[in-house]
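Thread: Modeling a multi-component assembly for a lab meeting

Hi all, long-time lurker, first post. My supervisor asked me to bring a structural picture of a complex we are working on to next week's group meeting, and I have zero experience with this. I have the sequence lines for every component (352 residues in total). Could someone generate the structure of the whole assembly? Inputs are pasted exactly as I received them:
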Amino acid sequence: MKGFDREKLQAFFAGHTDDDLVSWPNEVKMMDQFGLTCSEADELIMTSGFLPARYQRNRQMISTEQQLKLFKSQVAVVGCGGLGGYVIEELARLGVGHLRVIDPDVFTEHNLNRQLLATFDNLGASKVAAAIKRVQQINPAVCVDPRQVAIGLDNGVELLKGMDTVVDAIDNISGRLELAQLCSQLDITLVHGSVGGWFGQAGCIRPKQTTMHKLYPNPTADKGIESTFGTPSFTPALVGSLQSAAVCKILLAPGRLLDEGILAVDLLQMQFDNIPV
Amino acid sequence: MIKITVKLFASFQLGRFDRDIREYPSATTVGDVVRDLQIPAAEVGILLLNFVHVDLQRQLADGDSLSIFPLVGGG
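Re: Modeling a multi-component assembly
Sure thing. I ran the full set together rather than chain by chain. Output:
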């Protein structure tokens, strides 16, 4: 953090807060006056006991202390397509401060039916670059660390080391099995999600749990029902949201974590089943 | 003959059923039921026998409840 006058900062808060909230125009003033980035301003506001006003609708669920914890958290989102787009959007709006986004692909036309980050303007552009752009528009305090690579056993340790949790938003089964192996090795809880057609599943996989091998027992299959059914807009939105809620709970530890089962979602019959693992 | 309650999930219900009580000869395996339902083995994901994970080779007993889920792998 840059050196500056703490007394001046306290005086600034005294004149630019409403209850304990700092509005966006005042945060911009603070950034200008003290030469701060948005991320630095957010941190100073919260460590001083105030809250950036854009988080005020979080606060009945998330205290300022917890909001600061989210801000200091690091989450890797592996895959920035259907699931990953929604997860990145929701974690950024929630206020998770550091997102490492990993995806080797660029947007193509068939992504437009469901992928939040896909737009006509960025067809042909990298998915991780679109993630940076989107997060900048919705929460500029969030640091996005883009990695335009396919994750595998060769590079996975370097990509995931130090993360508080990892989100599985990949689109192939072999990648998911490798991701589970990497997270187990690094002692990181993995938030699994997958979709196909009207159907999806989500759950948390603690290190050493063998859940992924139970979900995908056939090592030769790399695709599931999604290769037959495709995927509409709402299935990844739902499953991605289940994953975002799981990340929030892993980081802040309230409520019950979905780690003793996988939630299987059937939007055709509107049936939700908790499968024991 | 043995009676098995078979529950199908997600796309496996399409053109089949969601829950059915079916009769099979004794010594029938999970794989035999999957073949009988014309489900390609490569598409099978989770198999639960009385809420416990099993594989296709597991032999069934009278009164068992078998749940069959497809692979869901999209992102």
